[in-house]
Amino acid sequence: MTTDARSRTAWRDHPAPRVLGSALGWFGLALALTLLVQATAALSDLGGFCARGGAFEITVECTDAIDAFLVWPELGGLVAVGASLLLTRGFGTPVAVYAWTAVFLSLGGVFARSFVERGDWSGLIIAVLFALVAIAPLAVVLPVAPQRLVLGRVDVRGHPFSDAHLSRPGIVARTPPAPPGENPPSAADWLLSLGIVAASASLGIALGSVWFTAATTL
Predict the structure, then answer these.
(1) How many whole angstroms separate alpha carbon 12 and alpha carbon 18?
(2) Can you say whether the dihedral through the CA atoms of 173, 177, 183, 184 is positive or negative?
């Protein structure tokens, strides 16, 4: 590899891009889901259907917030998850693994709300199905590699963790763990990974709530 090639990839080997990538992924996912869930809940309050524009007579018109946040958050969330994969390179709680679960649990909550507030049994059935779809992948992967699903496979410096619980490396990563005892996770590693998730997701939820409320009141 030439010096120029090394310099182009060296920045990704520093801790900062890994931390930034993890934070960006969890912030983006939380922001996108918050907007999507609130827009879906608002649509449910209108009866589950609305329209805007066109040549036909509109019975129920979509609000500005529904029109703005029912589609694009999914795209923004995908971009954030993709950027996280590019930057983290195995560090931190893998947002891509939990994105599927978060989406279906969040939307399932909207359908469950329709049952609780309006007695909609179809909403309860859909909520249960969404919960099963959400949990199934984690039920398969979590027992195989619990440590990697919280810490990732490398520390913030890019050094592979040793993982005594990893029985099938190929399920979550092709890279094998470090030999036993070579780089065991420290308390700081756990705190960093979980702290990034908590802080970034909380910020995304808060910003999404404020943003949706502002769009609703305009």
Answers:
(1) 7
(2) positive
Provide DSSP, 11-80.
GGGSHHHHHHHHHHHHHHHHHHHHHHHHHHHHHHHTTS--B-SSSSPPSSBPPHHHHHHSSHHHHHHHHH
Domain range for 148: 3-217
CA distance 39 to 128: 21
pLDDT in tens, 19-56: 999 999 999 999 999 999 999 888 888 777 777 766 66
Q: Which of 164, 168, 18 is nearest to 95 (CA)?
A: 18
C-alpha to C-alpha distance for 108 and 88, rounded to whole angstroms:
29
* Pair of tokens at residue 215: 């769009």
pTM (two decimals): 0.83
Are the C-beta atoms of 104 and 82 separated by less than 8 Å?
A: no
**Number of folded domains that form the chain:** 1
Distance of alpha carbon 33 from alpha carbon 23, whole angstroms: 15
Dist. CA 61–CA 201, nearest whole Å: 32
